[in-house]
Amino acid sequence: MNDLALEIAATAARLVVEEGLAFGPAKHRALKELGLPARTALPNNDVVEAQVRDYIDLFCADTQPGELLALRELALVWMQRLAEFRPHLGGAVWHGWATRLCDVDLALFCDDPKSAEIALINQNQRYEVQTVRGLHGDDVEVLSLHAFCDALNEDVGVHLRIYDLDDFRGALLPDAQGRSPRGDLAALKRLLAV
Fold this sequence. Notes:
With 194 residues, the protein is an alpha+beta fold. The chain has two domains: 3-59, no CATH class; 64-193, 2-Layer Sandwich (Beta Polymerase, domain 2). It contains seven helices and six strands; from the N terminus they run ααααβαβαββββα. It has helices at 3-19, 23-33, 45-59, 64-81, 91-95, 114-122, 185-193; strands at residues 88-90, 104-110, 128-133, 139-149, 154-164, 182-183. A six-stranded mixed sheet has the order 3-4-5-2-1-6.
């Protein structure tokens, strides 16, 4: 890896941690902050994640573990509420580098995609619907809501990606580093017990 890619990754990592940006937007903004052309090759997400972890170790070691715990406990609440939809936690909260600026990302695997919306309506939850790229490159609906996190004393975004039950098969394939990209309720409880 060249020094320029590492500098882009380090700048992007700072933006991820300090401003809560997602990796893609953080990398593009890093290019602008560094005065680099838009066509400059970007580091991959694994490099950015490594830089995020380094940044947290250096600048947030005293606060980040408590923030991560609070977000995982909030995820647990939502996974229990939505247990019938086989929820799996992913993203920064699952991988352990989340800070208070991160959202909780859950994948739900439903027999009927509308059933998750009905469950939220029955729980008197307000949510917004958007479409994003999903597991296999297909568009999926995301139900986004805000949930108050007592431990952080603020609202946290909770995003529910709605997948068909058939998508479950490939949802747990390990990533390039051999890690599971998401975990179910039992896996989250194991993380919380550590």
